[in-house]
Design goal:
By secondary structure, the chain is α/β, with parallel strands linked by helices. It has nine helices and nine strands. Bound molecules: adenosine-5-diphosphoribose. The site of adenosine-5-diphosphoribose has 23 residues, from loops. Adenosine-5-diphosphoribose binds next to loops.
Amino acid sequence: MTARPHLVVFTGSGISAESGIKTFRASDGLWEDYPIEDVATPRAWQRNPQQVLDFYNQRREQIRRAKPNAAHKALAALEQDGFDVSIITQNIDDLHERAGSHHVLHLHGEILKARSSVDEHMRYPLPKGGIALGDVCDKGSQLRPDVVWFGEAVPLFAEACELVSKADFLLVVGTSLAVMPAASLLSYIDVETPCALVDPEADMLSPPGVLAINATAGEGVPALANRWKQQGHLRLS
Ligand code: APR
């Protein structure tokens, strides 16, 4: 029996843009309205936890209202079509899971979970509502969003590198590749492994050796998935 081809997908906020969730660095992106240093660093949390909680509580509500788009769905469907699909996402939304993907690694955490501010292993699902000041973990410390802030370690990075190194194809979708260490994942693929970036700005962003596919996620990803499904393998040539 031949092994199922292994597609590893590395996604950024661009894959959720067509679901109505803002990206970060566009001229109308999230970081324009909410400076990183006010809402997404350990210092911001120390200085003004209410402001940080408000920011993530609002984003959580937006994400709950959003729906997976054609790109999330096409990746999930590939699992039924004979491919192993591992998704490494920088996104804190749950749209890959809601589309039906079974193997999703959240490099930057998950907004639908809270965690203890003294013990990162103490996590709590947030099926509804948000986090308020005074909501505490089982050790009595304030709960915070289970997201990785700027200046914090990325605990799942080594696991993500391992996945990338085993890929038969690395598909990158909707990321400006501006944030480390996430963006450095691309350097962990085997030299023989093909890699493509689907992004409206792909020709400007693609590092050497990465095929640039200038398209939105909702157009580019289903087109690739259809092609792979018909071929039964992941090559593009
Ligand atoms: N389809 C695909 N890509 C799109 C679409 C779309 N419809 N719309 C925009 N994009 C692309 C943009 O061209 C850009 O390259 O999405 C990318 C978004 O880039 P950023 O705003 O920098 O977001 P991202 O790369 O996901 O940021 C990485 O930075 O702030 C942190 O933790 C945050 O996980 C995030 C990380």
